[in-house]
C-alpha cells in the first residue's frame, strides 16, 4: 500500500474537525446524528492510511445509503443545506480519496465492511463436515443425511481425511440468515512454517468458495472465489497459497476401494500423496494423485531412480542418463549428474564422478582421448590444443607453463634455460656453462674453455698463439709481432711485457 500513514496528530485533527463541523454547520450535525461513517471508510482509516484530502472527506461525511448496500455522501455546503446526497459504490468512493490503493485492497475493505453476520474458523471434525456439506456447492459435497462426522463416517466421506489433529480447519462466512455462503479449508500444521518460514502467519488456504445461484435465484451453481472470506482470512493472518505445503499430513482412513484409503479431491498444485501406516503426506511426487471426487486416489506409475533406487511417480522432473539415455535418474539425484561430451563426440548425462570439467565444459572420463582431452601433470584436464607433452618429463602441461627450445621444441619451464650470450632457449638435455651465475651454451661465441679446463668469457681471457690455448687475463703474457704468447711458449727472441 502506497498511501501515507495517518499520524496521531492528524487523527486528533480529524476528531477536532468533526466537532467544529458539528457545532458550526447544522446540516453536518444532522448527518452526523443520522449515521456514522461508512464501515468501508472506517476500515481503511483503521489501517492507518491517509486520504488525499482529509478535510474534504470529513466534510462529505460518507455513510451507508438508505438501501443498506451503497455509500452516500454530501458533495458540498449547498448540497448539505438542501439535504441532497450523492449515492455511489463504496469502491468508487474509496478510490477517489485513496487513489494509490491497489484495487484488490479496496475490494477487500468493501467485502469486510459489507458482511454483517460474521465469520468463523471451526477446528472440529463436525465443523469441517458441516462447512463442506452446508456451504457452497462443490464436487466434494456429498449431500449426506446430516452434516456430522458420524454421518460422514457412515457414508465414507473423503473430508474425514482433513482431521483437525493434522492441522486442518474450516473457515466459513455467514449471510444475514446464518446460512454458510462462503467456506475455505485452512491448514495450520507444522509443515506450513517449516516450508514457508512465515512466522508471522498463522497458516494458509488454497481456495475459497462463494455460494452462487442461477438466474432463477434458487438453483445453486458451482462456486466461485469468495473475496470477502479471503479478505477476512488475510486479516486474521492466513496467507493464500497456490498449493498445500509439501509435507502436510492427512489422516489415513481405511476404505473398500482400489487404493484402500479415503482420499479427498485436493485443490492446488500439490495433489499427490505418499501413503504411510496411519497418515497420508502431501507431496509433488507421490504414490497417488488425489484428483477424484468419489473418495479414491489414482495410483501413479512408479519409476525407480537408477542411481539410488528411490521410486518416483513421474519422469518429468528427472533425467535420462547414459549414451542411449537408458537410465532414469530421479530428482533425488539429478543434481549429481552433468551433461558431458563422450562417446562419438555426443553429449549425454553421466554422474559427475565419471566426468571432468574442462574450462566449464564436461567430458566423459571414458572417452577423453577420443575428444582430445589430456590429463595434466597436476591432475587437471585440458584440451590437447592447449597443452604440451614435455619430451623430458613425459607428462602433459598447459601451454602457458612451457617454453620453446632450440633442441627439443616445447618443454616445461623448469626444463629450459636461456643462453646469456645469444638469448636463445635450450632444454636441460644440454648442460649449460655457468659463469658467474650466468648460463651459456657450450658453443656460444662469447665464452671459451681455458687451459686448466674451466670456462671464461672471451672478453676476460687471451689466446696463446704458441699453445693454441686460452688463459685468463690474470696470467701474464708476452707479445711478439702483435701476437700473444704464454711465457712458457714464447719464441726465443720474444721480450716479456
Describe this structure in words.
The chain has about 500 residues and is of the alpha+beta class. Helix content is about 20%, strand content about 30%. The protein contains eleven helices and 38 strands. The longest helix has 17 residues, at about 10-25. The protein starts with 7 loop residues before the first helix and ends in a 12-residue tail after the last strand. The mean pLDDT is about 90.
Summary, kept brief:
The radius of gyration is 46 Å and the shape is elongated.
Quaternary organization: single chain
Averaged pLDDT, please? 88
Class based on secondary structure composition and strand pairing: alpha+beta
Number of strands: 38
Sheet with the most strands, sense and barrel status: 6 strands, mixed
Q: Termini, distance in Å?
A: 108 Å
Low-confidence stretches: none
How many helical stretches?
11
User: Rg, please?
Assistant: 46 Å
Shape by Cα distribution = elongated
- The proportion of strand residues reads 25-35%
The helix fraction, in percent, is 10-25%
Could you name the key traits of this structure?
six-stranded mixed β-sheet; alpha+beta; 497 residues; 11 helices; 38 strands; five-stranded antiparallel β-sheet
Task: Summarize the topology.
Layout (H helix, E strand, L loop, with lengths): L7 H17 L1 H9 L4 H8 L7 H7 L2 E2 L6 E3 L3 H5 L4 E3 L1 H8 L5 H12 L4 E4 L2 H10 L14 H7 L12 E7 L5 E8 L2 H7 L6 E11 L6 E5 L2 H10 L1 E3 L8 E3 L20 E4 L3 E5 L4 E2 L8 E2 L3 E2 L6 E2 L6 E3 L5 E3 L7 E5 L5 E5 L3 E4 L2 E4 L8 E3 L5 E3 L3 E4 L4 E4 L3 E4 L3 E4 L3 E3 L6 E3 L5 E3 L2 E3 L6 E3 L5 E3 L3 E3 L6 E3 L5 E3 L2 E3 L12
Parallel strand pairs: 7-9
Antiparallel strand pairs: 1-2, 2-3, 4-5, 5-6, 6-7, 7-8, 10-12, 11-12, 11-13, 13-14, 15-16, 17-18, 19-20, 21-22, 23-24, 25-26, 27-28, 29-30, 31-32, 33-34, 35-36, 37-38
